Amino acid sequence: MAATDNHFKLTMLLFGLLFVTSLHLTAGQVGTFFGRLGTNVPGPAATVPLYQQNNIRRMRLFDPHAPTLRALGGTNIRLMMGVAHSDLRDLANCPQAATAWVRSNILRFPNVTFRYIIVGNEIDPNSELGPFVFPAMQNVYRAIRAAGQGGRIQVSTSIQINLLSQWSPPQAAAFKCSVNWFIRPILEFIRDTGAPMHINVFPFYAYLNDRRNINLSFALLQPNSGVVLGGVYYDNLFYVIHDAFIAAMTKILTAASPLSLQKKTESDVKVGSKVTSGQPSPPPPPPSAPHRNGNIPFDDGERNTTALSDGPIYTVNNARTYINNLMRVVRTGTPMRPGQPIETYIFAMFDENLRPGPDYERHFGIFLPNGQPKFPFRFQ
């Protein structure tokens, strides 16, 4: 009997250790994007404590912002920081400019936990800034290494789905031939430096563009809504888009590798990935407005003035569903990367009323300006 009890206790202890280890591996995988394009966005002095109170251990900034960097000092919040697009030309053309940028925006803040520098966010390769992304990445990387920070800060860029010629089924995904000149050297660079590619994965937009063929539950990452694509079962649309990027990047790297490497497995040419994702929700109605249970349909112009066949997507309830499901699905990996949690940044911390575009573009926030969540969620 004693031996049985001891065996039971040992079994429970091992289970407990596995459970704690699992929590350690998955907790903190999800952060948020702190955007400042709004007239009522709380300042860093209020926002950084809000991160800490809600156990949000990762922050993404679009560009350096000294007040935010000062507020982050000593907090151990891991930071993904972008480079302002207005700086790309100088950083690409002048190594000294990259050295000065690193000195001003990284070395001045030794108590900030910098993890990634994102050189360009969704830059169109055919725009005037397209040719500057890769050389700017190189110069920033060299400046970081010269400053003795190469062991802890990685350099990458951020891309969007428009660079793919197709994305479903994921195995058939590929980059457009017209962007190969842009994406190939970037992928080789991040593979060789060990940095991840940052990809923006927004099922919301994919659904809007093809809502006749995409089920809303699939776009909201609801359980038991999966489909088979190319012979592979996909539980949700987030996994589909993520794996489309993985397949497209692998094809570029395999084709660019020596013939001997082309015969090896995907793991020999793979790069890591970090993700930004989100789902908009309408702002709370004024106190005098009638209660509508959070189901307020969007109106982004001529295309979307009527309710969708399977219900509106731009609602508080759908945003709550998506965000909570997102924090669940990024823990377990995708069909192409099973068992590998995906570091993900929710777009965004607050609504930003100065963002251009349709109304929903200004309402991706998950917190209200007073620090209260728009809807229930937990970061662990």
UniProtKB/TrEMBL annotation:
<keyword id="KW-0326">Glycosidase</keyword>
<dbReference type="GO" id="GO:0005975">
    <property type="term" value="P:carbohydrate metabolic process"/>
</dbReference>
<feature type="signal peptide">
    <location>
        <begin position="1"/>
        <end position="28"/>
    </location>
</feature>
<feature type="region of interest" description="Disordered">
    <location>
        <begin position="267"/>
        <end position="311"/>
    </location>
</feature>
<dbReference type="InterPro" id="IPR000490">
    <property type="entry name" value="Glyco_hydro_17"/>
</dbReference>
<protein>
    <recommendedName>
        <fullName>Glucan endo-1,3-beta-D-glucosidase</fullName>
    </recommendedName>
</protein>
<comment type="similarity">
    <text>Belongs to the glycosyl hydrolase 17 family.</text>
</comment>
<keyword id="KW-0732">Signal</keyword>
<keyword id="KW-0378">Hydrolase</keyword>
<dbReference type="InterPro" id="IPR044965">
    <property type="entry name" value="Glyco_hydro_17_plant"/>
</dbReference>
<dbReference type="Pfam" id="PF00332">
    <property type="entry name" value="Glyco_hydro_17"/>
</dbReference>
<feature type="compositionally biased region" description="Pro residues">
    <location>
        <begin position="280"/>
        <end position="289"/>
    </location>
</feature>
<dbReference type="GO" id="GO:0004553">
    <property type="term" value="F:hydrolase activity, hydrolyzing O-glycosyl compounds"/>
</dbReference>
